[in-house]
Amino acid sequence: MLGPHEIGSDGRVTGQFLHGFSPTNPLLLHNLVISRGLLYSVEVLGRLDEGLAKTYRPVSEIPLDELRRDCLTGNVLAPRVAAIGMKAVMLARGMIPEGFFGLPVMHSTRRILETWDAELAFEEGRRVYAPSAPSRLSCIWLAEDSPAGRSSIAGAVRNAHVCAVDVIYSLAIWGADAGWWTDYMNGPQSVYVERYWSGVRHPRAPEPEILLDGIIKIQPADLDALLSHARRVDEEQA
Q1: In angstroms, rounded to a whole number, what is the distance separating the alpha carbons of residues 19 and 211?
Q2: Long-range interactions of 57-61: CB distance < 8 A, separation 24+
Q3: How far is 1 from 95, CA to CA, in rounded Å?
Q4: Contact indicator for 59, 124 with CB cutoff of 8 Å
Q5: What's the gap between Cα 139 and its chain centre?
Q6: CA atoms lying within 13 Å on the CB side of residue 124
């Protein structure tokens, strides 16, 4: 389903979704263990945590010029923003030397800057075409519970451990087609941003994804399996 999803009066969203967890992220695994399998979006965490709430600003309230200049300074950072946005800002300021990230394309200087420019373009488009949708800069990424959904996660998260998750609370949830994001990265055009946020399905290479501003829960058995997966990855990389 593209576009907005129905949210129940208790904040829950009916249906089964998938999320890809990175077994190489020890902070994520620690948080999952102490929260008993819960994962909070940045927006929810910023509102609920008393300490964070003192300084947290919703992404929608931060001017685009400030995002470009400072990323999300002072806010909780979603993993993708920490990996791309903060590096792009440091690169633009000359705080990181050219080629610092080595040869892999996704970590090259040019790719980081291009990706952050694209994220800012899509954030600007969200504010125009779908202001009630979660921001790509602060959401939890989900997929439909299907072979296509699993394939999508596998392509996005290295060594992903895919779990079925329940959306136990949602401020906003939105379906989009990442095929338009792929097109934009291959040749930026504003029409791709509009189609992404307007819920248009890609005619040739659909890549459905779901953006959630809320809380997801994985079952204890899946959490145990994720931790076992993480141990295997550690052993393979040792």
Answers
A1: 11
A2: 58/138, 59/123, 59/135, 59/137, 59/138, 60/127, 60/131, 60/135
A3: 42
A4: no
A5: 5
A6: 15
Q: Is the Cα torsion angle 170, 44, 184, 146 positive or negative in sign?
A: negative
Task: Give tens-digit pLDDT for 129-155.
Answer: 999 999 999 999 999 888 878 888 877
Distance, CA of 238 to CA of 235 (rounded, Å) = 5
Q: Considering only CA atoms, which of 172, 152, 171 is closest in space to residue 162?
A: 152
Angle at 67 between CA 64 and CA 71, to 5 degrees: 170
Q: Give pTM, 2 decimals.
A: 0.86
What backbone phi and psi angles, to 5 degrees, belong to 57? -125, 130
Which residue, among 89, 79, 123, has the nearest Cα to 109 in the 3D structure? 89
Q: Which two tokens stand for residue 156?
A: 């996005």
The structure tokens listed for 110 are 């040019």
If you average pLDDT over residues 62-89, what whole number do you get?
Answer: 83
The single-letter DSSP state of residue 15 is E
- Assigned token pair, 109: 């200087």
d(CA 21, CA 153): 9
